[in-house]
Amino acid sequence: MTGIEIEVDGRGVAVPEGASLLAAVLAAGIELPTLCSDDRLSPAGSCRTCLVRANGHIAAACVTPAVSGVRVETATDDVRQLRRDAVELIASALPSRALADGNPSELAQVCRSMGVGPEAAQATGGRGGDDSHPYVHLDRDLCIACGRCVRMCAEVQGTFALTLVGRGADTVVAPGTGGPWAESDCVACGGCVDTCPTGAITEPGPGRGLTSAHPPTATRTTCGYCGVGCALDVVTRNGEVTAVLPARDGPVNQGHACVKGRFAHGYLTSPERLTRPLLRRDGRLEAIGWDEALGEVARGLRKVIDTGGPDAVAAISSARATNEENYLVQKFMRVVVGTNNVDNCSRLCHSPSAAGLTASFGLSGGTDTFDDVERSDCLLVVGANPVEAHPVVGARLLRRVLHGAKLVVADPRAVGLALHADVHLRPRPGTNVALFHGLAHVLLAEGLADEGFLRERATGLPELAELLDDYPPDRVADLTGVPAADLVAAARLYGRARQPAIVYGLGVTEHLHGTDGVRSLANLAILRGAVGTDRGHGVNPLRGQNNVQGASDMGALPDLLPGYGKVTDPAVRSRAEAVWGAPVPARPGLRIPDMFAAARAGNLRALWVIGEDVCATDPDTNQVARALDTCPLVICNELFLSETARHADIVLPAASWLEKDGTFVNFDRRFQRVRPGVPPPGEARTDFEIVHAVATAMGIDIGCPTPAEALAECGRVAPVFAGLSHDRLERDGAIPWPCPDPGRPGEAKLYKERFATPDGRAHLAVSPYLPPGEQPDDDYPLILVTGRRWAHYNSGSMTRRGGNLTLDPIDFLDLNPDDALRYEVHDGLPLIVESRHGRARLIARVSEQTAPGQVFCSFHFPASGVNRLTSDHADTVTSCPEYKVTAVRVAVP
Ligand SMILES: Nc1nc2c(c(=O)[nH]1)N[C@H]1C(S)=C(S)[C@@H](COP(=O)(O)OP(=O)(O)OC[C@H]3O[C@@H](n4cnc5c(=O)[nH]c(N)nc54)[C@H](O)[C@@H]3O)O[C@H]1N2
Ligand SMILES: Nc1nc2c(c(=O)[nH]1)N[C@H]1C(S)=C(S)[C@@H](COP(=O)(O)OP(=O)(O)OC[C@H]3O[C@@H](n4cnc5c(=O)[nH]c(N)nc54)[C@H](O)[C@@H]3O)O[C@H]1N2
Ligand code: SF4
Ligand code: FES
Ligand SMILES: [Mo]
Questions:
Q1: How many CB atoms sit inside 10 A of residue 81's CB?
Q2: Quick one: pLDDT at residue 883?
Q3: For ligand 1, is residue 564 a contact (CB within 6 Å)?
Q4: How far is the CA of 426 from the centre of ligand 1 (A)?
Q5: Which atom of ligand 4 is nearest to the CA of 50?
Q6: Where are the domain boundaries for CATH 2.40.40.20 in the chain?
Q7: 260 CB within 6 A, ligand 3
Q8: Does the C-beta of 881 come closer than 6 Å to ligand 1?
Q9: For a designed S-S bond to 589, which of 112, 341, 490, 699 qualifies (C-beta 3.0 to 4.6 A apart)?
């Protein structure tokens, strides 16, 4: 091992350059107490708990760098005594409950290990607390001002919400804004709760005092909210979740989490959880038993198949559900029903990424690992708001920027990361393709393209160069509203970086020309030779749902089988047929919007909606509801009586991510295990069990009795997953695909030798800029952009049922101050928002975050009706809705 050799208590040990004496002591297998230190944070060296003697001098091990040849003593009586004195001094300023027997805090444990008992705690307390926040309580009497919470908030989370106030022994943590915690900048990532060594900052309720430092017995699982894929430890008591702790060895989250994964589990015990199947009788949904429900579903499906043919049935599979469940759903549709009518919410989200990245590079996923992206010296973050939508990734990107990486943000809104950007490009919504061409124009014009790479590993340069002649910065400025100088500055940052990386989100995909957007964005990486090489870290979509990558990987798509083989390809079909022992239909099935159109036309006669609230989250929901009401049989697997479930004929109560077994694939293509922490409520069952039971009720054995066997079978259908298994994941943790071989690791960084396109080359795309589908006019003068807010998740069905609702109780429409003036709107005013398709009700919030002429809202409160506003315009290649551009007007009711 290269590094530094030192001696600890007579033992030789080698540590890497830059390591602290503390790290060296631990590497030597020797225990040393610490309090103000946390290996996720920079050292502070303030508590003196870790004193050692180094070459004869007393030093705090956590802040002292190891230098070659140093001799460290940790165990002599005098250094032990010095450490004890330091801890005794800290303890003396605390009330005795800080050290009470059984107190699980790090401080209490350190004191016990040194023989410092509760009697050492001599303060009376009385400094009070702050219990204004649903998830973070402060007890000032227990604060030792170690600053771990402040550093966690600044260094790991990047929110800078906390500070230390007061002097000397009175120093205590406080929100930087001065008022109550609930009104501070805190985004409840739980970092301060997790790092606090004394119990001064805790999660209220049964999880009080639990941290990842000494996690109690827990179930390791993967977060079921967003696609980051945080590893979490679920602590339970008597069959209920007491806390969900971030795993320190989580490959993506590394001991961090966000307000959703860490805290939003209150929905589990909501009295509104569905616990029994429901059947519509005389227009009303009534609770029935499972046998009856399954009989109704089986009879209903059989009747539609017999009278209308298999293609009169369709299913929407859930990107919230596991791989194994998605595999089973698509197998059910293909084998039991005999149709390819199966799709998932990737359609609404990153289907343009799947199509665009496949066309440009060959595979349907991001090109690089996030660990690589994080090493980049220039980040181009486009149409993504990771600070709110992928908080753990947002925090890691921000950390990288604070450590010196350049940052270009392209987003019409002043999103969190934009505040730290070197250049913030604010294109008018829907003008990305022009923007990316403008950047590409500058790369070529200024000689910043990688000619060798273009010659050897790419195609399409002459055609693209000709197109780019039409996109000089001045013209692009007219098309996009981005000043030419900013465009040039951004292109130079990306063009001159050593290893640039592109990260992007729905601001690229959810457009009339979303696939063109993805491909023109990919052009930039190809021009720079920054993909498939060590000269950059590619093009990486921040996939949304916990398992939207997996749902598509498993073939819950109308045109693709597991592993992305085309249903139209006879060789692909026959491989699946050999495994399934049944014919696979050759004709591609219906996409989600086409399912609704077919239902309205009377051609689709049975629709099974599994974990997607289409009446709240699909666009133009008035028309979706009409489709469900026209369709004779609508079956819905749900946790709650969602907007969609209200329109269903049969509702089947489903288990959620904390209640099931399987795997998810996160945004950088890693398979990770999902394990049940608690049983589902009442008679609710997992989607896996439900699909099985329906197949059995229809008289067909669908195979795959367990999730592990389902993934194993998938590997036989799809060679890219052949090396994966539950056993292997159990052993190795996260494994990325492609993973064709059980004896080899998965491929984290793609295309090192060749691209996966038929000719092995990256393909530059040559698509002219075309305007968005919706345009403002005199009647509808504002452009509405819709997207995410930090505390809620999609339809909000889970986050509105628990403490997150307290954090964000109101559905706002953000307007620029200019527009507020023009339309005589002020903060807090109830508004009616109207589009050409419908109307919604929201509360005005005036903010510079939104540009003049644009308004922004979320879609997390179905009751507001935001998706009644959005149109049926959709990406011309993949049918991904144009959620990001709707012409609207506002009125005061
Ligand atoms: N808190 C929270 N987190 C979530 C979710 C949630 O609901 N809540 N949902 C999850 C899901 S399913 C997904 S897919 C991801 C989505 O994560 P993101 O893609 O980050 O989400 P959005 O907020 O929808 O859109 C991103 C940004 O695109 C910008 N944008 C709009 N139009 C344009 C344009 O024309 N050009 C450019 N360059 N930018 C534009 C918007 O201003 C917005 O800031 O988040 C996941 N994480
Ligand atoms: N205006 C606008 N609309 C949008 C978007 C936008 O940016 N703007 N974004 C779109 C995007 S990217 C997406 S991904 C969609 C998301 O839209 P949806 O997929 O509809 O949203 P979710 O709230 O994530 O989950 C859907 C339902 O699944 C249930 N559920 C959760 N877990 C499970 C499970 O394990 N099994 C079953 N059976 N049910 C479960 C939940 O209770 C919820 O009702 O929204 C889209 N809608
Ligand atoms: S960042 Fe995403 S995966 Fe991680 S805890 Fe939050 S919602 Fe879960
Ligand atoms: S742990 Fe080293 S000084 Fe606090
Ligand atoms: Mo999504």
A1: 12
A2: 98
A3: no
A4: 15
A5: 2
A6: 782-891
A7: yes
A8: no
A9: 341
Ranges in the chain annotated CATH 3.30.70.20: 124-269
* Residue 104: burial class (beta carbons within 10 Å; 0-12, 13-18, 19+): middle
> Residue range 386-410: average pLDDT?
97
Domain with CATH 3.40.228.10 in the chain: 367-371+379-527
Q: Is the CB of 610 under 6 A from ligand 2?
A: yes
Confidence of residue 678 (pLDDT cuts 50, 70, 90): very high
Would you say the CB of residue 337 lies under 6 angstroms from ligand 3?
Answer: no
In the structure encoding, which two tokens stand for residue 311, read together? 């293609």
Pick the CATH number of 367-371+379-527 from 3.40.228.10, 3.30.830.10, 2.60.120.1440, 3.20.20.70: 3.40.228.10
The whole-model pTM stands at 0.96
- CA atoms of 816 and 836, how far apart (whole Å): 22
Find the mean pLDDT for residues 703-720.
97
pLDDT for residue 579: 98
Ligand closest to Cα of 44 equals 4
Q: Is 545 in the pocket of ligand 1 (CB under 6 A)?
A: yes
Q: What is the DSSP letter of 282?
A: T
pLDDT of 2 strictly over 70: no
**Level-2 CATH architecture, domain 782-891:** Beta Barrel (2.40)
For CATH 3.40.50.740, list the domain ranges present in the chain. 297-349+547-720
Ligand 1 atom closest to 430 (CA): 35
pLDDT in tens, 184-196: 999 999 999 999 9
Q: How many residues does the chain have?
A: 893
Q: 216 pLDDT band (50/70/90 cuts)? A: confident
Q: Does domain 124-269 have CATH number 3.30.70.20?
A: yes
- Would you say residue 215 has pLDDT above 80? no
- For ligand 3, is residue 258 a contact (CB within 6 Å)? yes
Count of CB atoms situated within 10 Å of the CB of 549: 32
Query: How high is the pLDDT of residue 330?
Result: 98
Give the mean pLDDT of 694-715: 98
Calpha distance 594→613 (Å, rounded):
17
Residue 270 · residue 240 · CB < 8 Å = no
Query: Would you place residue 169 in the very low, low, confident or very high pLDDT band (cuts 50, 70, 90)?
Result: confident
pLDDT for residue 316: 98
**Where does ligand 4 bind, in terms of residues with CB under 6 Å?**
34-37, 45-50, 60, 62
C-alpha angle 92-93-96 in degrees, rounded to nearest 5: 70
Report how far ligand 2's centroid is from the alpha carbon of 260 (Å). Answer: 15
User: What class has domain 297-349+547-720?
Assistant: alpha beta
Sheet arrangement for strand 735-736: 662-665, 670-674, 735-736
pLDDT in tens, 715-774: 999 999 999 999 999 999 999 999 999 999 999 999 999 999 999 999 999 999 999 999
312: closest CA among 606, 652, 635?
606
Over residues 10-22, the pLDDT tens digits come to 999 999 999 999 9
Comparing CA positions, the residue from 158, 330, 319 lying closest to residue 227 is 319
Q: Is 798 in the pocket of ligand 3 (CB under 6 A)?
A: no
Q: Which CATH number fits domain 4-99: 3.10.20.740, 3.90.550.10, 3.40.50.10470, 1.10.1060.10?
A: 3.10.20.740
Q: Kindly state if the Cβ of 550 falls inside 6 Å of ligand 3.
A: no
Q: Which of the listed residues 345, 866, 871 should we mutate to test ligand 2's pocket, taking the one with most ligand atoms within 8 A of CB?
A: 345
- Enumerate the CATH 3.10.20.740 domain ranges in the chain, comma separated: 4-99
Q: Best substitution site from 225, 506, 816, 860 to test ligand 1's pocket, by max atoms within 8 Å of Cβ? A: 506
Q: What are the C-alpha distances in Å from 568 to residues 99, 511, 588? A: 68, 27, 7
Average pLDDT, the chain: 96
Q: Quote the pLDDT of residue 134.
A: 97
- Ligand 2 geometric centre to CA of 520 (Å): 28
| 1 has pLDDT over 60 | no
Can you tell me whether residue 621 is helix, strand or coil? helix
